[in-house]
Structure formats: structure tokens, C-alpha cells
TrEMBL record, chain A:
The name this protein goes by in its record: Aldehyde oxidoreductase iron-sulfur-binding subunit PaoA
Intracellular or extracellular location(s): Periplasm
Start and end residues of each 2Fe-2S ferredoxin-type domain: 46-122
Domain of life: Bacteria
Complexes and interactors: Heterotrimer composed of PaoA, PaoB and PaoC.
An example Gene Ontology CC term for this record: periplasmic space
TrEMBL record, chain B:
GO molecular function: FAD binding; xanthine dehydrogenase activity
PANTHER family: ALDEHYDE OXIDOREDUCTASE FAD-BINDING SUBUNIT PAOB, XANTHINE DEHYDROGENASE SUBUNIT C-RELATED
Enzyme class: oxidoreductase
Protein name: Xanthine dehydrogenase YagS FAD-binding subunit
EC number, UniProt record: 1.17.1.4
Organism this protein belongs to: Sphingomonas trueperi
Domain FAD-binding PCMH-type: 1-223
């Protein structure tokens, strides 16, 4: 056997590697000198039951499936969008058991028995949710890609203020939060709009909040 | 993402025992940091143990006047708890200064303590990183280090601990409660929980294999005025360049801990004795022996000035 050189490649290996290169991918792993990384025989899949927009849904998913991919690819609810897929942009925001989360950073199998509300569950084209109507009225978007996440987030923000959950802009965190533009901007900071429709988004939320208070 | 097996844990002790005997196992709770890292294949667990259904989601008063916070209490719920807002406002302030509303709804108390660094070289699998791959080197040293640590660094790692909540927990002298795979429980002072990198930067904390956090307890309230000032590149939803957690009493004495400066929440008790003398005197002791890089040397005056702003507000 040839002794390996200091860069870990044998002379024979180097001479034959040119010819062998094209065939490498077709070789079984056992033919390689390297210890093969044991691949999982079949990726594990598990059943999960959800309630999505009020309707029961039963699916079997690869454990890697995020809630976002379960909604879009398995249940074909494509209103919820995949932006960054890393919890940085908020396009995938949905409500789970009434609370907004990034559906891209949650596994579907972790949601057994949970109730999920997506943009499709808030309103319909014929019967818009007041927040949807306010976004339309105030032009709270340009391309519209971040909009379902913005609207789900905005609906939850109003609930969070109502529930007395404090925010970073509160002067006194022990006091009940008051509705203000500063509060909207801070609480909506997890939803990025690359078109920069922020001022109209704030106007839309302000109007929807006013309607609800009335 | 690499394929993995998934099991729902039935009790904290069972979860710990299962984690210890299953190769490549990790706990998952909120998942907001772990799944991000799994998508990048920086974390590649072969088995996830879901602890979400364990009944560790309550905040209870302790006999000595403190609070016991279950490991699964979500960041939003901890920040919104009336007792926390009244008696430990620095903790509420730190939590709401971090992440976004969506993430805080999911992230847990224990998971937040275990948050991994945001060093850009840790996040880039094409770069050497001793934290991600022990022995591979550190591309941050000599690289772009603006966000990275200025004190407690080593030749192997200059990463920072990225979180906000833990800075307040360190200030408040919290205790981390755990259960080990043999069912025994353990209490770890928060000061001993996070590690400095040394020559083993892949170890962020002092938990043992399979050990599961069950709660974090706070001693009785300190009184005083509570502050968490966070300086970052945008007004919301960004990691700290520098943060200052402080509790200041009427006589000017108090406590201070810093975020964004080191591999762990940075609190030097000896420096706190200098608080009545002001920010410069305090910072001189807190950051003695600092080893900043060209890129991040600004953090030292920034930390001192942020503390000065806090102390000025405390007097006002």
C-alpha cells in the first residue's frame, strides 16, 4: 500500500482519481475509503392532528416538516408565506392557540392538537376581516408578499395590547400598555416589509384598532 | 436539515434519562434557536426530545419571597407576569428588549438561557469555528469582530452570549434548577451556569449530558429602580452591541450586569462597590483586563456611557 503524502492523498489515489471521479457518485458507500456517514434508512414520519381555521386536519409528515411547510405543501394553504425561513422576516406569521408565532421555526409534529389560524381563516374575499379591509383601504402593502404575515401579526398585536402584555417602548412596564403609534411600530418589528409600506401599515392597524375600540 | 427521530417526553426525569442514553439527542422546547441552527446544519441532532408537554409552565412564589419560574414559561408570559413587572422590572425590560413578539411567544425561559452565539463565523459552515467544530480554528479572530467579545475571550474564541434575559437573571442572582439522567436534581447559581470559552468554546454552559433545566428561581426582590438599556444597530429586533442591566438603590448603591461584552453575562461584583462613584469608576473595575479588537474597542466606552445614562436616570 502506498504511504499517504502529507496532504492525505496517496500517489496511486491521485493517479486514479481523474479516471474514477465521474464514477464516484455511483459507487456504493462501502467502496469508499472514508467511513460513510450512516444515513437514516427512511426519514422518520409521524402522524399529527391539527385544527386549521376551525377544521380538523390529519396528516403524516417527515419529522423535519415545519408548521409552515405543513400548511403550504400538505394542506395547500398558500396564503402563509415563506420569506427567510429563519424567523427573521415574519412572512410566515400565523396564530397558534390564539398567539402569533413564526411558523417556519416550529415543527408540525410539535403541534399535536393545536388550533392554527392562518390568513385564510381570518376573512374571505367576500367577507374581509376588519384588519384585511384596513390594509386594503390604506394600501398597507406594495408587492403583498409580507402582507398575510403582517395582518396575522397585527391582529395578534391588538390582542396582546388588550391583554396587557408590556413592550419595550413602555415608560413603566408595570402599567397597562396604551395603544400608540410607537407601540404598533415596536410590536410589529418582527414583520419586515422590503417594499417599505410601513407608514401605511401603521395607518391600517390604527384604523382597525379604532374600529374595535368603538 | 438532517433527518431525526422525535419523541414526546412524559416527565422531566424520563426526558433526561432518554437524552443521556440516546446518541445525538437534544431537547426541543420553543425551538426558535435550535431549528434555525438545524436548517443550517450547524446543529444536527439525530433525535429530538420534545419537552413542551411537561408541566413546567408555571410561575410560583417561593417560601422565601422569591419566584420559581418553570423552564417552559414563555418569554411573553414571564415578561407579562404582574409580580415580575412589579418586583423584577429589569427582567421584564430585558425580555421585551429581545427578539420579536412572535419569537417571545414561543421561546422559553430555559431555552433562552441556552441560546447559542450569533457570531457570524459560528453561523457560516464554510469558516473555521472552534465552537461549531472543536479544533478547527477561529475565523473571528482577525476577522470582522465588531459584534464580538471584548473581555473574557480566549485564543480559541471571541464569541458573545447573545441574549438579554440572562443578563437580568445574572443581575438578580437567579438559580437554575435541573434534573439529571439518574433522576437527581441540582441547583446551579446563574454565575456558574454560563462559561467563558477557554480552550473548550463548544461548551456554552455547565450542564451535563442529558441534564434538563426544570426551573429558574429568583431570590426575594431587591427593591430599587430597575433598568435595562440596550444599544443596538436598529431600534427594535436586533441583538445588543452593549446592554446594561442595573438595579440602583436610593443611596446610589446597586448592581450592574452587562450584555454583548463577553461569552457570558458580565457581572463583576467588585465593580458594583464603585457604583456610587459613577460609571467611569465602575467600568474601570468591571472591564479591567479587557482584550478588545480594533473593530470592537468602541464597546468599552459605549458600555461606560450607557451605564452613565442609567445612573443619571436613576438619580433623576
Amino acid at each position: 500500500m502506498d504511504s499517504p503524502s502529507d496532504i492525505g492523498v496517496s500517489r496511486r489515489g491521485l493517479l486514479t482519481s481523474g479516471a474514477g471521479f465521474a464514477a464516484v457518485t455511483a459507487l456504493p458507500a462501502s467502496a469508499s475509503n472514508k467511513e460513510p456517514v450512516a444515513p437514516m434508512e427512511t426519514p422518520p414520519a409521524l402522524p399529527v392532528q391539527l385544527k386549521v381555521n376551525g377544521k380538523p386536519a390529519e396528516l403524516t409528515v417527515d419529522t423535519r416538516t415545519t408548521l409552515l411547510d405543513a400548511l403550504r405543501e400538505h394542506l395547500h394553504l398558500t396564503g402563509t408565506k415563506k420569506g427567510c425561513d429563519h424567523g427573521q422576516c415574519g412572512a410566515c406569521t400565523v396564530m397558534v392557540n390564539g398567539r402569533r408565532i413564526n411558523s417556519c421555526l416550529s415543527l408540525a409534529v410539535m403541534h399535536e392538537g393545536d388550533s392554527v389560524t392562518t390568513i385564510e381563516g381570518l376573512g374571505t374575499p367576500e367577507d374581509l376581516h376588519p384588519m384585511q379591509a384596513a390594509f386594503v383601504k390604506h394600501d398597507g402593502y406594495q408587492c403583498g408578499y409580507c402582507t398575510p404575515g403582517q395582518i396575522c401579526s397585527a391582529v395578534a398585536v391588538l390582542d396582546e395590547i388588550k391583554a396587557g402584555i408590556p413592550s419595550h417602548v413602555a415608560a413603566d412596564v408595570a402599567a397597562s400598555p396604551a395603544f400608540s403609534e410607537m407601540e404598533i411600530r415596536e410590536r410589529m418589528s418582527g414583520n419586515i416589509c422590503r417594499c417599505g409600506a410601513y407608514s401605511n401599515i401603521v395607518e391600517a392597524i390604527r384604523e382597525a384598532a379604532g374600529r374595535r375600540q368603538a | 436539515m438532517k433527518a431525526f427521530h422525535y419523541t414526546r417526553a412524559s416527565s422531566p426525569a424520563d426526558a433526561a434519562a432518554l437524552a443521556a442514553k440516546t446518541p445525538g439527542a437534544k431537547f426541543i422546547a420553543g425551538g426558535t434557536n435550535l431549528l434555525d441552527l438545524m436548517k443550517l446544519e450547524i446543529e444536527t441532532p439525530a433525535h429530538l426530545i420534545d419537552v413542551n408537554k411537561l408541566a413546567l409552565d408555571r410561575i410560583e412564589e417561593t417560601p422565601d419571597g422569591g419566584l420559581r419560574i418553570g423552564a417552559l414559561v414563555r418569554n411573553t408570559d414571564l415578561a407579562a407576569d404582574k409580580r415580575v413587572r412589579r418586583d423584577y422590572a429589569v427582567l421584564t425590560r430585558a425580555i421585551v428588549a429581545g427578539a420579536s413578539g412572535q419569537l417571545r411567544n414561543k421561546a422559553t425561559t430555559a431555552g433562552n438561557l441556552l441560546q447559542r452565539t450569533r457570531c457570524p463565523y459560528f453561523y457560516d459552515p464554510n469558516q473555521p469555528c472552534n465552537k461549531r467544530k472543536p479544533g478547527s480554528g477561529c475565523a473571528a479572530i482577525g476577522g470582522f469582530s465588531r459584534q464580538l467579545a471584548v473581555i473574557g475571550t480566549s485564543k480559541a474564541c471571541i464569541a458573545t452570549y447573545p441574549g438579554d434575559m440572562a443578563i437580568a437573571m445574572r443581575l438578580l442572582d437567579a438559580t437554575v434548577e435541573t434534573v439529571k439522567p439518574d433522576g437527581a436534581t441540582r441547583k446551579i447559581a446563574i454565575a456558574d451556569f454560563h462559561r467563558l470559552p477557554g480552550d473548550t468554546p463548544h461548551l456554552d454552559n455547565t450542564l451535563q449530558t442529558g441534564e434538563l433545566i426544570t426551573a429558574v428561581t429568583l431570590p426575594k426582590p431587591l427593591g430599587g429602580k430597575h433598568f435595562y438599556h440596550k444599544v443596538r444597530d436598529r431600534a427594535s429586533y436586533a441583538f445588543a452591541l452593549v446592554s446594561v442591566a442595573a438595579v440602583v438603590q436610593k443611596d446610589g448603591t446597586g448592581r450592574v450586569a452587562f450584555g454583548g461584552m463577553a461569552h457570558k453575562p458580565w457581572r463583576v461584583e467588585a465593580a458594583e462597590a464603585a457604583l456610587p462613584k459613577g460609571a467611569a469608576a465602575t467600568a474601570r473595575i468591571a472591564f479591567a483586563g479587557a482584550t478588545p479588537t480594533h473593530d470592537n474597542a468602541f464597546k468599552l466606552p459605549l458600555a461606560e456611557r450607557t451605564l452613565a445614562a442609567v445612573l443619571s436616570e436613576a438619580r433623576g
